[in-house]
Amino acid sequence: xxxxxxxxxxxxxxxxxxxxxxxxxxxxxxxxxxxxxxxxxxxxxxxxxxxxxxxxxxxxxxxxxxxxxxxxxxxxxxxxxxxxxxxxxxxxxxxxxxxxxxxxxxxxxxxxxxxxxxxxxxxxxxxxxxxxxxxxxxxxxxxxxxxxxxxxxxxxxxxxxxxxxxxxxxxxxxxxxxxxxxxxxxxxxxxxxxxxxxxxxxxxxxxxxxxxxxxxxxxxxxxxxxxxxxxxxxxxxxxxxxxxxxxxxxxxxxxxxxxxxxxxxxxxxxxxxxxxxxxxxxxxxxxxxxxxxxxxxxxxxxxxxxxxxxxxxxxxxxxxxxxxxxxxxxxxxxxxxxxxxxxxxxxxxxxxxxxxxxxxxxxxxxxxxxxxx
Amino acid sequence: xxxxxxxxxxxxxxxxxxxxxxxxxxxxxxxxxxxxxxxxxxxxxxxxxxxxxxxxxxxxxxxxxxxxxxxxxxxxxxxxxxxxxxxxxxxxxxxxxxxxxxxxxxxxxxxxxxxxxxxxxxxxxxxxxxxxxxxxxxxxxxxxxxxxxxxxxxxxxxxxxxxxxxxxxxxxxxxxxxxxxxxxxxxxxxxxxxxxxxxxxxxxxxxxxxxxxxxxxxxxxxxxxxxxxxxxxxxxxxxxxxxxxxxxxxxxxxxxxxxxxxxxxxxxxxxxxxxxxxxxxxxxxxxxxxxxxxxxxxxxxxxxxxxxxxxxxxxxxxxxxxxxxxxxxxxxxxxxxxxxxxxxxxxxxxxxxxxxxxxxxxxxxxxxxxxxx
Amino acid sequence: xxxxxxxxxxxxxxxxxxxxxxxxxxxxxxxxxxxxxxxxxxxxxxxxxxxxxxxxxxxxxxxxxxxxxxxxxxxxxxxxxxxxxxxxxxxxxxxxxxxxxxxxxxxxxxxxxxxxxxxxxxxxxxxxxxxxxxxxxxxxxxxxxxxxxxxxxxxxxxxxxxxxxxxxxxxxxxxxxxxxxxxxxxxxxxxxxxxxxxxxxxxxxxxxxxxxxxxxxxxxxxxxxxxxxxxxxxxxxxxxxxxxxxxxxxxxxxxxxxxxxxxxxxxxxxxxxxxxxxxxxxxxxxxxxxxxxxxxxxxxxxxxxxxxxxxxxxxxxxxxxxxxxxxxxxxxxxxxxxxxxxxxxxxxxxxxxxxxxxxxxxxxxxxxxxxxx
Amino acid sequence: xxxxxxxxxxxxxxxxxxxxxxxxxxxxxxxxxxxxxxxxxxxxxxxxxxxxxxxxxxxxxxxxxxxxxxxxxxxxxxxxxxxxxxxxxxxxxxxxxxxxxxxxxxxxxxxxxxxxxxxxxxxxxxxxxxxxxxxxxxxxxxxxxxxxxxxxxxxxxxxxxxxxxxxxxxxxxxxxxxxxxxxxxxxxxxxxxxxxxxxxxxxxxxxxxxxxxxxxxxxxxxxxxxxxxxxxxxxxxxxxxxxxxxxxxxxxxxxxxxxxxxxxxxxxxxxxxxxxxxxxxxxxxxxxxxxxxxxxxxxxxxxxxxxxxxxxxxxxxxxxxxxxxxxxxxxxxxxxxxxxxxxxxxxxxxxxxxxxxxxxxxxxxxxxxxxxx
Lengths: 373, 373, 373, 373
Prior knowledge:
Chain A has about 375 residues and is α/β, with parallel strands linked by helices.
């Protein structure tokens, strides 16, 4: 397989980031199939045409079913609001196309199961867009843990916090609607933290959670003094247990003033610990118990060529890669996995565990109980 | 009241820190009663005599009841293992002496209630030694919150972590025994975090917790290959709810490699947020939502004369005070509260709320349920 | 002008970064001319062909004069060792092509003057590749200074340090040769710091410098035990004066263990100060004298949409851009400047001031004297 | 020798810090002579009496010659403005008393020489109060360097900056007067940096410097609109050379907004580097070149019991000591050196090298030349 024709649905900022990744993946990762920008779709024809022109897509459309029915298209990229994921993904799989879909999977666990089932019954490749998995820093954290550098794991403590809804004056948006978004901070931000946590700790076996909506209603925009109830979580806390006795603490919030992309965690083990913070995505802090106690301390490791695939972008450590580079890595890895017919974590099937955790958190908060996963 | 005669029980590191505080309080806080080092006690006569000589105590003893029966002594300072607090404190109150007692109150909620009841029935002053409350930085955090600087509070997220038991090879100690210490990390470290949290957020109304002992047994020292079951928590996570809808996430651990005194928290509110970390005890991070969005960001405030009582120690900001200075502040404040007959938070009565939270955490972990406070 | 055909000379890491920038500039900055990858050149035909294939250049060549003589090419990009800059740039200008050239200009001030003179006599656009100028963070620093946010400037203190030659076992390379590289750390790293400093402070009027070669000879590689004298500076310090009485301190080094890209500076003024460090290129530290002294402190500003052109890459603050994005910005700005026929700082003419400073530093160190610029 | 009677001249903040150190030295360092607070002096009798009462000095006086003539006093502590150091120190030595004197030595190199000569001709012990030398963190830096941990030294880069005169509205004070203070930032702040630098690098052999007064005149206080010329440096930069080819860059400033106690340096060597910043006085950053390149990075070492004499104050790392603790260490070390009749660096004789550097900086700036030391 030398090339894949790509159809992209959605032209918001994450859609643009997809387009950039498709554009650059093969230049930086020459061993992967070429990705041809075949068609871009947006309900708004001006937006569709604009992204088409900027990124040299072959054509634009306002009807996503156009992409599904276009036999030349091999891969569909879904960068739309959560409520649309399921229908589009299922249609794409039915049409025999590979699917790259933004997280979370849908607005409910049922939707996620439908998507996973459909994917399993087909021969196409699927990937959920958990781009923070792809950072050279996080890949190194995984390597450190798997190689036993910090020994048996004691516990994980993580947060994913942003400030985009911290202002009580921020208007109601689709993200506040249960129908449109499903959960709030949980699905939008917490899903990223869950994905990283599970990649390190394995699947949790049970959890207890607490959800709160700290701003119960928000203005609906415009000049009128109307407001709408916020239907999902602004903040969620959870505690989790794993099979081997390790535990985790989890917080996600969209109302954390000052936090722009605080996807940060600590992992503690028998022989050391690791700290990571996406707001300083090119740094890893590693503490190792070692003999020289007077010089013990966290090392601030700046990512570089020793942390693949950083070197694909620039050979010099400390020069830094950025957010869009993570998308490029993700897309290159997906293209490679399609070519090699080897699934890449997290497929739609893999993603179920994340969705189950989210659903269990919602249930736990409602029932005030520990919930099995 | 111009002076108070002090009897100190315990000569370990915290006892020494008490001695230093008693020695310096009035020099730095000239308005408080003079504190005379009357008697120091340790079961080990050499240790007692050594601290006596170093700090010019009037006399030393190996029998703590000597201090209780010494009519000249006005104030008893208790710096012994947790299991001894109750008996000593009760005896001192019965003898009409003011009591300054290390946290936690005892090894059970029952013990704490006995102490509080006894204190309430008497006219003496009592204070629990939660010295981190006294830092100029924390005092400023309280002032910021109370003045409404960050508005209505959304949530609190805090940790208190050290590494002193992180090594599986660290031997069994009295801190691992339920009889001697009560809880593990919870009482030793978590109590500090609870105290700070309650000072900011008020009393929680309910909580759910999870306790784990990640190193189930430890060697009992010596050359023999004997070991003892660890009887209390290495790690505790909890989630808490407050009356006004605010929530909290809480983690404490004595097995966190790399953490020396990680008593750190974030507070998020309607108009801003605050971060504090005792490992950088002379710094406060403050984020304020303000008009100039392009220059938004956390301010790193270095404590100085604007943050009383820092100026008592040195007028220049950024020159820093240390741990022992916190004890000096605490002791000066207690001496002042005795002189003015105004209770200082947390008295034995106030301390009950902290002990209730700890007991509720233990119960919650056992019952796997939310527990009211 | 709708498009420009680009010829790139050099396929090393910086050449690849150029290629990526040319590839992406117009997708992210749709108002600039389209940049067509016409031809790539490397002496090594395999390298040339490889970059051609990866980035879809129209053709590859091993003879850079091929690019000069290709009438379809509008813009020549020079990413070769310093000793080749002059000849290539002059030939390109003579052929009527716009020139984008890596810094420093050449291996001597004479070479720089030749290049500037040639550029001035022509009507083509020229730009020196000082990409750190282009970061949204640095652009914001410039805006803060120019808007008077920190008032009249007192002094500037800056460093540009890396570790690539810190190991005495690192072999001799072209960068250690006076003929091939001119100066050492000065031209390779210090030039970047000079460019940023001059952008903020204006042109210095005089300076005094000190150069040292801390590893006087290095092995010449291979298994043989041969070595070669290092002919230029490992470390350079300088002090500079400006017309308005402000001063600067300057250090550059290629032997600073632990420093990967430590291009960092402090600017102090009447009303505040600014700190920036390229190793955390998405952060700016700003201190403002203001009324509320108890909350004074450096603000850590995370770059975002308020700091153009960050928003071209991603709208969310704290998500971060990377090194290659700086090249994309630079190339887009150059393309725009060509289209609008407005010079972009630093043209070859502008670059002379940087080269003069470097030459004055070399002279000052030799003569042990202050040198005028 | 079991005890020393102390006379303290000066009750400003540094005098108070002396008093606290004298009060606590022996409690924390039981092997040193007891230090008895015999007499405190201030021109202002209320201030003298106040410090006497607070710290239990035996008596107070307004005439410093009272202390000199008091035969019972063994040690004189000088904490007065610079212009008074020489006369007081010489008189004390003449009276056979040990002298502990604040830095800098006086207002000129001549004064320093007089003091050193007088000390050399006597049998008393002298010590200059460079308290930052005494921090456990700095002691560890010295140990690391001396043990060869970072190998042969390449260069040193240091700053000592505060903001106390940054505001153009800050009034003229004795520190701005050449007669009263000698130099400005140089003697007040730069002397500290010189002392640390020399302790690490040895004596410099030559230097070149640049001094600037960025606020040429300041109001003289009161309501009247009068002002006075500032007679010494607000900012000083220097470059230094050492015998072994190593170099240093040096900046000191009293006009650096945001800097409270920025006494910070980097030391680079063949095998690693060290960063230290007094604003985080309980932390040391160490970079070591080592085999595991993927985990290379600066370690943040939190001081603890492994860094003597930290353990005298508290055994637990990360709990932190403060500024006044440095004075206590210094005084304990001086008391020990008196008892053991072993000189402690920097004696008055040792201090000459610092004063020579300052004088050479002033001369270099005036002559615009390199000056030998």
